[in-house]
Amino acid sequence: MLAISFDNSYVRDLPEAYSQGEAEAPPKPDLLYWNAELADELGLGTAGEKPAELARLFSGTELPIGAQPIAQAYAGHQFGGLSPSLGDGRALLLGEVIDGHGQRRDIAFKGSGRTAFSRRGDGKAAVGPMLRELIIGEALHALGIPGTRALAVVATGETVQRDRPLPGAVLTRVAASHLRVGTFQYFAIRNDADMLRKLADYTIARHYPELGAQENRYLGLLAAVAERQAELIALWMHAGFIHGVMNTDNMALSGESIDYGPCAFMDAHHPDTVFSSIDHQGRYAYGNQPAIAQWNLARFAETLLPLIAPDDPASAVPDATQAIENFETRYRHHWLAQARRKLGLAGEHAEDHQLAQDWLTLLAAFGVDHTLAWRYLADVVEGKPDRLTALFAEAAALEPWLKRWLIRVAPKSRRPSDIAAAMRRENPIYIPRNHLVEEALDAASESGYMGPTLQLLEALREPFTERENMARYALPAAPEVAEGYRTFCGT
User: Fold this and answer.
1) Under a CB-based contact definition with an 8 Å cutoff, are residues 90 and 118 in contact?
2) So what's the pLDDT on residue 12?
3) Residues in a beta bridge with 437
4) CA 253 remoteness from chain centre
5) What is the CA 294 to chain-centroid distance, rounded?
6) 182-204 burial string, b = 16+ CB within 10 Å, else e?
């Protein structure tokens, strides 16, 4: 049996923060996907393992030697309402490994059966949602956006009942950690200051060791988490990514994107875009994501007040408030820095933010495809505007903005071809188009055919390199197909 060099610090250091768990052995495990490249990066030593053995090891039939499966405890604000006890209802942390870069990584199951936190749930998962997590995670990774990744997806050979019977699956997820804002909320609700301190010290040691020598490392932790979230959300916004369920239990303290449920990438640019079938009020719409991230960070700050000022937590409010208010400034900084790269701008001019905002206003006014509009701007630098102008119902409306932009981007010592090439390195041509994702999930769910999923992953692996044989992966769905598109959480 495979022995993995696990080093399970969460189990050792935070015994109050989890419940022991056990995966349910599925009746007929079948390996649908294996990420050999990620396995090598993690140093798992699985190169010689056969698919049938990998299916057994990463479905719960057997566990790799050294695994210590646990269900982590956490609370969370879900759509603004506080749930004091959530926890891993269908996930198990198997353990941690030190990867080839010296980074500690979690390896966890999702969909492996009931845990102490399952409540009325069955703890299982379906093939479709697990493949969505695979596709989105690999897409974000290729785009340079921090996020969890899928190591394996195994069909279980059993049926799970959702709105209809669906084939079951187990996902093996790799993350920098599964520490969440909700993890801190769980102990803050219980007024357990000692456990909050242990949890904060663990988080600092694992993700922010540079804070260890700071006079008030807990205030530093708040600022550091806010900084990473500001950078992450700016990346989401530029990519047109909509998480869909930005509950506090879905905000990772590592700064990774986590828990890809009803998430999707936007086609036509509009701030009010919502895909999630459960987001009836649009709380987590595309344009709301920065404000929701700041709101979540405020909830995190509340849990840290007893650590920042143990003798008088209320006295910590001004400093914590300042750290939260700084999020907006830091988000704007990261957003503008990336906007300049995407627009091909050299240096920093005061009008750059307005120039970028006016560009997005144009996209929204005409319902222009977010990804292709950014991508085709590079053509204009080279004197070939046709692909871009074809996206606009009224091409003349684009001309005033293009004139402003071309004056700002006008090459002095730079060649137009160099500017265009740099822009194409920042603006992808391929994203997980919603209709193609659904096509892949349907094929795998209905007949076990993984061809569309693997073909889509191949396109997404190099999202910035346009390839003639992959033209269909660059195009959005027809308007009648895209209209009313909804995603589902799959729980």
Assistant:
1) yes
2) 97
3) none
4) 12
5) 17
6) bbbbbbbeeeeeebbbbbbbbbb
Calculate Rg over the CA atoms of the chain.
Answer: 23
- Structure tokens, 428: 């992808």
| Mean pLDDT estimate for the chain | 96
The residue-averaged pLDDT of 320-340 equals 98
pLDDT value of residue 120? 87
Q: What percentage of the chain has pLDDT greater than the value 70?
A: 100
Q: One of 88, 106, 249, 279 is an active-site residue; which one? A: 249
Give residue 48's pLDDT: 87
Task: Examine the residue annotation and report whether 249 is marked as an active-site residue of this protein.
Answer: yes
**DSSP-based three-state secondary structure for 458:** helix
What letter would DSSP give residue 50?
-
User: 456-461 long-range CB contacts below 8 Å, 24 or more apart?
Assistant: 456/135, 456/432, 457/134, 457/135, 457/138, 459/430, 460/135, 460/138, 460/139, 460/142, 460/430, 460/431, 460/432, 461/138, 461/142
Q: Are 389 and 395 in contact (CB under 8 A)?
A: yes
**78 to each of 182, 243, 484, how far by Cα in Å?**
10, 14, 24
Amino acid making up residue 373: A
Residue 298 amino acid letter: A
Residue 487 pairs with which residues in a beta bridge? 276
User: What pLDDT is stored for residue 412 in this prediction?
Assistant: 73
Cα–chain-centroid distance for residue 444? Answer: 23
**410 — pLDDT class (breaks 50, 70, 90):** confident
pLDDT in tens, 452-473: 999 999 999 999 999 999 999 9
**Stretch 237-265: mean pLDDT:** 96
Mean per-residue pLDDT for 307-332? 98
The first and second tokens of residue 86, run together, are: 């959530």
Sheet with 149-161, side-by-side order of all strands:
18-20, 70-72, 91-98, 104-110, 165-175, 149-161, 30-34
Residues 334, 473, 152: CA angle, nearest 5 degrees:
75
Quote the DSSP letter at residue 384.
-
Model confidence at 413, pLDDT cuts 50, 70, 90, reads confident
CB 389 within 8 A of CB 332: no
Assigned token pair, 453? 């999923």
CA-CA distance, 372 to 364, in Å (whole number)? 13
Helix (H, G, I), strand (E, B) or coil at 13: helix
Please name which of 74, 84, 80, 487 lies closest in space to residue 292, comparing C-alpha atoms: 80
Domain ranges across the chain = 9-178, 182-234+241-260+284-340, 345-424
pLDDT at 490: 66
Q: Among all chains, which residue has been given the structure tokens 């195009």?
A: 475
Three-state SS for 71-117 is EECCCEEECCEEECCCCCCCEEEEEEEECCCCCEEEEEEECECCCCC
